[in-house]
Write a structure and sequence with these properties.
The complex is a heterodimer of chains A (517) and B (445).
Chain A lengths: L1 H11 L14 H8 L5 H18 L4 E2 L14 E2 L2 H11 L7 H10 L2 E2 L5 H10 L4 H16 L17 H5 L2 H14 L1 H11 L5 H9 L10 H7 L5 H12 L5 H11 L2 E4 L16 E4 L7 H5 L12 H12 L2 H8 L3 H8 L5 H15 L2 H12 L6 H11 L2 H13 L9 H7 L6 H14 L7 H13 L5 H4 L10 H30 L1
Parallel strand pairs in A: 2-3
Antiparallel strand pairs in A: 4-5
Chain B lengths: L4 H6 L4 H9 L6 E6 L3 E6 L7 E6 L4 E4 L9 H12 L11 H23 L6 H39 L9 H13 L3 H8 L11 H20 L6 H11 L5 H6 L3 E15 L2 E10 L5 E8 L14 E9 L8 E12 L9 H14 L6 E13 L2 E5 L4 E4 L4 H11 L4 E7 L4 E8 L2 E4 L1
Antiparallel strand pairs in B: 1-2, 2-3, 3-4, 5-6, 5-8, 6-7, 8-9, 10-11, 10-13, 11-12, 13-14, 14-15
The chains are: A mainly alpha (517), B alpha+beta (445).
Chain lengths: 517, 445
C-alpha cells in the first residue's frame, strides 16, 4: 500500500515528511529506484504517478456475497406492445398527462401490463396520487408488486390482486387499505368481517380510514357494525360512521333524523283566490322551527355542535339534520312535487340554508328528480362553491339527463358571459355519448368563429377532448372555420384540443393492434 | 429503420424546440405532407408570406427548412419527422416535388464533391505551395510548443508547491486558487491540462478518500510535465497520448487519410455532457469481430449546431473507423459506412466485472491520461445495497453504479432480479450505465 503512504506525505507536505526508500526487489521496486534525484516533492509526485497507475491497473472487483433477493415471478398477463407502451412513456413524460387514467383503463380492459421501464414512474404516480391507485394496480403485474415490496413508498402496491388474506394479516397499512378497498368491491361482507375481527387492535388513526372503505359497496347489512362504531373513542371514526349510516336510507340513524326533522319543518299549503276575490292568493310556504339544543343523542348521530363562521348554531344544527333526511320523505309527507316544495321554501325564513341542505342531500342520495329542480335553482342564483354544487347535482343525474341539461346551457352560452357551461362540461367526467359529443363539437366550432376572448373556455377545450366519444374522434379534425375573425384567438385552444384527440386516436389504434396479436 | 418518437426528440437542439416540434406534429397545420423511402417533405404556413418548405433526408438525417430559425433542426423539421415516426399514414403524397428533388440532388452533389476533394488531396499539388504551407504550419507549431514548455514549467512549480506545503491546507481554498493556474495553462495553449486542473476544484469536498483522489490526479499532471520534458525519447503512441492530454488537436483529415478498421460496430451507448454551453457527445462502440472499443465525439457550441445523430444507440453499423493515433487507440471517426444501421442484440465483451477491470487496466497502462473507457456486460444483475446501487456478476463481484434513483429503479424493474445486458462508461472511479438490453429490447438510460 505504498500509494496510501505517499498520500500521507502529500497530505502533510514534503516539508515535514521524508520519503522512505524502498527495500523490495520486485520489478516495481526496480522502477521506483529509477525515480531518483531531487527535489523531494518532485520525487513524491513521480512515485505517486507510478504507484497510482500500478494500483489502479490492479483494481480488484469488490466481492458481494450477500444473498440475492428472490427474482420476480413470471407474468400471467401479456405486456402492452411497443407502440402502446411508447404512448404511455410519452404520457408519463408529461405529454397529455390527463390521459394517463384512460391508458391505464384501456390496458386493464385488454388485460395488458404496462412496459417494464414505466413501472417505477407508475408506482411513484400512485404514491403521490392515491386516487389513481385503483387503476394503476391492475397494470403492474407480478413485476410491479415485486418492485413495490422493495420500496416502502410503494407499499400500497405490494399486495397481490388475487385477494388472499395474507396482505391483510401481514402487510403494511397502505397495502392493507388497498386490500380492503378491493375486497369491498368484490365481497363487502367478507371485508367487514375481516375488519371487525381486528377492529379493537387497530391503531385509532387507521380505523377511520379503514372505515371509510365502506363507502364502496355500502349496504344495509353494514348497519350493525357501523352503529357500533358510533360509540368509538375517536371523533374521526364516529364521524365516518355517522356519515355512512346517513347514506343508508333505512338505518336507525336516518329514522331518528327524520323524526327530528318532522318537528322542525311544516308545510303550509297555499290557498287559491276565492271567487269573490275577498281573499288574496296565498302561495304555499314552509314554516321552519330551529332546534332548541344539540343534545348528546344528536351529537352521537354525527351532528356537529359548533357552527362554521357566519352561521348561527341553531340553523347549523337544522341543516345537518335536513341533509340526512331522504328527499322522498318530503314529497311523500307533503304530497307535493320537488318543484312545489322548493318554490314553497322561498316563502319562509332560512330559505337559502334550506335549499343548500337539500342540494347536499340530493348529491348524497343521488336523487335525480330533486337534482334537476335544484340545478335549475342553483344555475340562476349565487351560491357558495357554486361550481362544486352544480357538478354534484349533475353527477346525481343519470348521464342522459346530465347531457340534456348541459346541452341546454350551451345553447344559451352567448347570452351570458358568466355561463358556467365550459367549466361544468369539463367536470363531467363520464364518457360522453356520441350525440352529446357532437353538440359540444358544434358549440366549439361556433364559439371559435366569434370574436369573444373567453380565456377560461379556451383552456377548457383540451379537457373536452378527453371525454369525447371515440366514434366522434374522426369528425373532430375537420370543419374548423380557420379564416374567421376569432380564429387567431381560438386556434390555440383548438390545437390543444386536437392534439389530445390525436393522442386518443393513436391510443385507440395501438390498443386495437395489441388485441389482434 | 423506423423512427421512434424518442429518437426524434433526441435530435432537438433544446427543450423548447422539442416542445414546439411536438406542437407542429399535427397534420392539420401542414399544407402539404409527403414521404418516400429516403426522404419526407412538407409545407407549412408560418408568419412569413410564402409557406415554409421543410424537407428531411433520412440518410443523415439531414434537415432543410426555408424558415428563418437559427436552431437546427428547426421545429418544422422536428414536427415533420415526429409525424413520420408517429403517424406515417398522414404523409399522403408520394412524388417528391421539384424543390425536394433539387435539394437532395444538391446534397448528393456536395457529398460527392467532398469525397472527390478527399481523393484529390491525395494527388500531388503544387510542390512549392505545399512547402510554403508546411513551413508556416511548422512555425506555428514550434511557437506553440515553446509556449507549452513554459506553461508546463510554471505548472511544475505550482505542483511542487502543492505537495511541499501539503494537501491538508487545501480544504476551503477559493475557486480562484485552482482557476488561476488553469487560466495560465489556457494561455500557454494547454487546454487539456487546464481542464484537468479545473476539475480539482471541489475535490477536497468529495468525502472520504479525497487526498488519494487528489494525489492521483495531481500525479497525472506531473506525469505530463515530466513526459513533455523527454518527449523525443518517447514511443510514438505515448507522444500522441501526451499531446492529446495537453490539448493538441489532431487534424481529422489526417486521421481519415489513414487506413480504417472495418467491422460491425455496435453502438453501445451515448452520453452528452454540457459545460459552459459546450456540449460534448460521447458515442461508444464495440467491434463485433475485432472486439475493439471506439469512441466517437461530437461537439456543439449552441442550439444551432446539432450533435451528430448518425450513430443510433442500440443499432449496429457496418463501417470503417479511422482511429486517432494513440498507444491504445480509442477515439475514432467514421470513415465509411456500408449499408444502413441495423437494430441488433449485440454480443457484449465483458463477461465479468474482473474482465472489465482488466480491460480498463490495459487502457490506463498504455495511456495513463485516458479519461473513460466503455464497459459492456452481457449479464449482470442490478441490486440495491445499503451503500447504493450496484451491479453483480455471476462470479459474485459487484460494481457501484453512478445512477439517478429513478433510473436505478427502472433498471431494477427491467431486470426483475434476473441478469440483464448493460453498457456504460467507466471513468476510473465509478461506472455510469447508459444502455440496457432486456428481453430483446434496447433502452437508453
Amino acid at each position: 500500500m505504498r500509494f496510501a503512504e505517499l498520500t500521507q506525505i502529500a497530505l502533510l507536505g514534503t516539508d515535514r515528511q521524508t520519503i522512505a526508500a524502498t527495500t523490495g526487489t520486485t520489478s516495481l521496486c526496480q522502477l521506483e529506484s529509477q525515480v531518483g534525484g531531487s527535489p523531494s516533492e518532485r520525487v513524491l509526485l513521480s512515485l505517486a504517478a507510478l504507484h497510482g497507475l500500478y494500483e489502479r491497473s490492479g483494481t480488484q472487483p469488490m466481492a458481494d456475497n450477500a444473498p440475492l433477493p428472490p427474482a420476480s415471478a413470471g407474468e400471467r398477463q401479456k405486456r402492452a406492445g411497443e407502440r402502446t407502451g411508447s404512448l404511455l412513456r410519452r404520457l408519463l413524460g408529461g405529454e397529455c398527462s390527463e390521459l394517463i387514467p384512460e391508458w391505464l383503463a384501456r390496458a386493464a380492459r385488454s388485460d395488458l401490463l404496462a412496459p417494464l421501464e414505466t413501472l417505477p414512474a407508475l408506482l411513484n404516480l400512485g404514491t403521490s396520487k392515491p386516487e389513481l391507485r385503483e387503476v394503476i394496480a391492475p397494470v403492474l403485474g407480478e413485476r410491479g408488486r415485486w418492485l413495490a415490496l422493495q420500496n416502502s413508498d410503494w407499499a400500497w402496491a405490494g399486495c397481490a390482486v388475487d385477494d388472499s388474506d395474507e396482505t391483510w394479516r401481514l402487510g403494511e397499512y397502505p397495502a392493507r387499505l388497498m386490500f380492503l378497498q378491493r375486497l369491498r368491491r368484490t365481497n363487502p361482507a367478507r371485508a367487514r368481517e375481516l375488519l371487525a375481527d381486528v377492529w379493537k387492535e387497530e391503531a385509532p388513526e387507521d380505523r377511520a380510514a379503514f372505515l371509510a372503505t365502506f363507502d364502496i359497496g355500502l349496504a344495509a347489512d353494514d348497519e350493525p357494525f357501523l352503529a357500533s362504531a358510533l360509540e368509538d373513542k375517536r371523533h374521526e371514526v364516529r364521524r365516518a360512521a355517522a356519515e355512512l349510516l346517513a347514506r343508508l336510507p333505512d338505518s336507525a340513524l336516518v329514522k331518528r333524523q327524520i323524526e327530528r326533522a318532522a318537528a322542525l319543518l311544516k308545510y303550509i299549503p297555499g290557498t287559491a283566490a276565492s271567487v269573490l276575490k275577498l281573499r288574496k292568493i296565498k302561495p304555499a310556504a314552509i314554516e321552519v322551527t330551529l332546534p332548541g339544543e344539540c343534545d348528546r343523542a344528536m351529537q352521537r348521530d354525527g351532528i356537529e355542535p359548533k357552527p362554521p363562521a357566519a352561521l348561527g348554531q341553531r340553523v347549523w344544527w337544522l341543516v345537518q339534520i335536513i341533509e340526512v333526511v331522504p328527499l322522498n320523505v318530503w314529497t311523500r309527507q307533503w304530497n307535493s312535487t320537488p318543484e312545489e316544495i322548493v318554490a314553497a321554501s322561498r316563502q319562509g325564513e332560512w330559505r337559502k340554508e334550506l335549499v343548500e341542505a337539500w342540494m347536499r342531500a340530493a348529491v348524497r342520495q343521488r336523487n335525480a328528480a330533486w337534482a334537476e329542480v335544484l340545478f335549475d335553482v342553483a344555475i340562476n342564483e349565487e351560491y357558495r362553491d357554486k361550481t362544486t354544487v352544480l357538478t354534484g347535482l349533475l353527477v346525481a343525474m343519470p348521464p342522459a339527463q346530465r347531457e340534456e341539461r348541459l346541452s341546454a346551457l350551451l345553447s344559451v352560452y352567448h347570452k351570458s358571459s358568466r355561463n358556467p357551461a365550459g367549466e361544468l362540461i369539463r367536470l363531467c367526467r363520464h364518457e360522453w355519448s356520441p350525440s352529446f359529443s357532437r353538440v359540444v363539437l358544434h358549440f366549439m366550432r361556433v364559439v371559435s368563429t366569434g370574436q369573444s376572448t373567453d380565456w377560461p373556455l379556451r383552456n377548457q377545450f383540451k379537457e373536452f377532448a378527453m371525454h369525447l366519444a371515440p366514434a366522434v374522434l374522426e369528425e373532430a379534425n375537420a370543419n374548423w372555420i380557420t379564416d374567421s375573425k376569432g380564429w387567431e384567438f381560438w386556434s390555440k385552444g383548438v390545437d390543444e384540443f386536437l392534439a389530445v384527440i390525436q393522442f386518443r386516436a393513436d391510443m385507440g389504434a395501438a390498443f386495437k393492434n395489441d388485441s389482434q396479436i | 429503420m423506423p423512427w421512434t418518437t424518442e429518437q426524434v426528440l433526441a435530435l432537438a437542439p433544446d427543450a423548447s424546440s422539442a416542445k414546439s416540434g411536438q406542437a407542429l406534429a399535427v397534420p392539420r397545420k401542414w399544407v402539404v405532407l409527403g414521404a418516400e423511402q429516403n426522404c419526407a417533405w412538407g409545407t407549412i404556413q408560418g408568419s412569413g408570406k410564402a409557406p415554409y418548405q421543410t424537407c428531411i433526408d433520412f440518410s443523415g438525417p439531414a434537415f432543410k427548412c426555408t424558415c428563418p430559425s437559427r436552431k437546427f433542426p428547426c421545429k418544422h423539421g422536428l414536427g415533420l419527422l415526429l409525424m413520420v415516426a408517429q403517424q406515417a399514414d398522414v404523409m399522403v403524397e408520394t412524388q417528391p416535388p421539384a424543390w425536394v428533388v433539387e435539394w437532395i440532388a444538391k446534397r448528393t452533389e456536395k457529398e460527392e464533391r467532398k469525397a472527390a476533394k478527399a481523393t484529390e488531396s491525395d494527388k500531388p499539388a503544387d510542390p512549392e505551395a505545399i512547402a510554403n504551407a508546411t513551413r508556416a504550419a511548422d512555425k506555428r507549431l514550434a511557437s506553440r510548443e515553446a509556449r507549452v514548455t513554459c506553461g508546463l514549467d510554471e505548472l511544475g512549480v505550482w505542483l511542487d508547491d502543492l505537495v511541499r506545503s501539503g494537501f491538508a491546507v487545501l480544504p476551503g481554498k477559493p475557486s480562484s486558487f485552482w482557476a488561476a493556474p488553469a487560466a495560465r495553462l489556457v494561455d500557454a495553449q494547454a487546454p487539456g491540462l487546464a481542464r484537468r486542473l479545473r476539475m480539482l476544484d471541489g475535490i477536497t469536498a468529495t468525502g472520504e478518500g479525497w487526498p488519494e483522489r487528489l494525489l492521483q490526479e495531481v500525479s497525472l499532471l506531473h506525469l505530463a510535465r515530466e513526459a513533455w520534458a523527454r518527449m523525443t525519447s518517447l514511443p510514438e503512441g505515448v507522444r500522441a497520448d501526451l499531446r492529446t492530454a495537453i490539448g493538441f488537436t489532431t487534424n481529422q483529415e489526417e486521421v481519415l487519410a489513414q487506413p480504417g478498421l472495418r467491422d460491425c460496430w455496435t453502438v453501445v451507448g451515448r452520453r452528452v455532457d454540457e459545460q459552459e454551453r459546450l456540449r460534448t457527445q460521447r458515442t461508444w462502440l464495440f467491434g463485433a469481430n475485432t472486439r475493439r472499443a471506439a469512441l466517437c465525439l461530437s461537439f456543439s457550441a449552441g442550439p444551432n449546431q446539432p450533435l451528430d445523430a448518425s450513430l443510433v444507440p442500440g443499432t449496429r453499423a457496418d463501417a470503417e473507423l479511422a482511429f486517432f493515433p494513440s498507444s491504445w487507440p480509442l477515439r475514432a471517426i467514421v470513415k465509411k459506412r456500408y449499408g444502413s444501421l441495423q437494430p441488433v442484440m449485440p454480443v457484449l465483451p465483458h463477461k465479468t466485472i474482473a474482465e472489465a477491470n482488466v480491460f480498463a487496466a490495459e487502457a490506463i497502462t498504455a495511456n495513463p491520461w485516458v479519461d473513460r473507457v466503455p464497459f459492456a456486460f452481457p449479464a449482470v444483475t442490478p441490486l440495491r445495497r445499503t451503500r447504493g446501487w450496484v451491479i453483480r456478476d455471476a462470479a459474485g463481484h459487484a460494481l457501484a453504479l453512478n445512477i439517478a434513483e429513478d433510473k436505478a429503479w427502472m433498471l431494477c424493474s427491467l431486470s426483475g432480479g434476473q441478469p440483464i445486458s448493460l453498457a456504460g462508461e467507466w471513468d476510473g472511479l465509478i461506472f455510469t450505465p447508459l444502455s440496457v438490453w432486456v428481453e430483446g429490447r434496447f433502452l437508453c438510460l
